[in-house]
Structure formats: structure tokens, C-alpha cells
Amino acid sequence: MRKITWSIDAEYDYEENIEYLLREWSVKEVEEFIEKADEVINTLRTELVRYQAAKYRGIFKCVVCKQITLFYKEKDETEIELVRFWNNYQDDKKLKL
């Protein structure tokens, strides 16, 4: 089982997405987002998977839901760092990894 760490940006993005869903949608959508994110994180933690390489060196990406992409990096064989939970409707040019 691999250790999962969160960057400050990943924590901020995750909370921002939840706040947005609560403002604009409902608790149901928040619960669905959290479930999907947890599924991806648990897969990264427990299985030897590697999602699609991103255009940034050493960074991989995984679609959590159609609106959100998780960017992560493998620090070593035993640790993965969640880098960003990026809203796909934002301008890609603003994505800093």
C-alpha cells in the first residue's frame, strides 16, 4: 500500500470544488464528487496503476469526473503526491504544476 500526500494546491482545489458544489448545486453532488475522488485515491494507494502521463514532466493525470482532473506524481515506489484537482473548464494556461 502506498502513502498518499496532498500538496497545498491539491487541498485548496479540493475544498474549492466542494464549496462551489455546495453553492451552485447540492449536497448530493458534493457526496458524489467526494466518492469519486476517494475511489481514485484508493486505487492509487492500493493498486500498482499509472494513469495517463500529463504534459508536465513526472506528472500523471486521472479524470475524477468530467469536470475535474486529478494531477499527481509518484515521489517514489511507496508514495504518491496529489498535486492538483483541476477544474477542466478553467483556462489550461493558468494551470501551474
Kindly list the characteristics that best describe this protein:
97 residues, alpha+beta, YaeB-like fold, five-stranded mixed beta sheet
Number of domains: 1
Question: What is the helical fraction, as a range of percent?
Answer: 25-40%
By helix and strand content, what is the structural category?
alpha+beta
Task: Report the top-level CATH class.
Answer: Alpha Beta
Known CATH architecture: 2-Layer Sandwich
Order of helices and strands: EHHEEEE
Number of helices: 2
Number of strands: 5
Integer-rounded radius of gyration: 13 Å
Strand line-up across the major sheet: 1-5-4-3-2
CATH homology group? RelE-like
- From the N-terminal CA to the C-terminal CA, the straight-line distance is 25 Å
Q: What's the layout of helices and strands?
A:
Elements: E1 3-6, H1 8-24, H2 27-46, E2 52-53, E3 59-65, E4 68-76, E5 79-87
Parallel strand pairs: 1-5
Antiparallel strand pairs: 2-3, 3-4, 4-5
Could you walk me through the main structural features you see in this protein, from its secondary elements to its overall organization?
The protein is an alpha+beta fold and 97 residues long. 38% of the residues lie in helices and 32% in strands. The two termini are 25 Å apart. The mean pLDDT is 94. The chain has a single domain (3-89), classed as YaeB-like fold. Helix 1 (8-24) runs antiparallel to helix 2 (27-46). The protein has a 5-stranded mixed β-sheet with strand order 1-5-4-3-2.
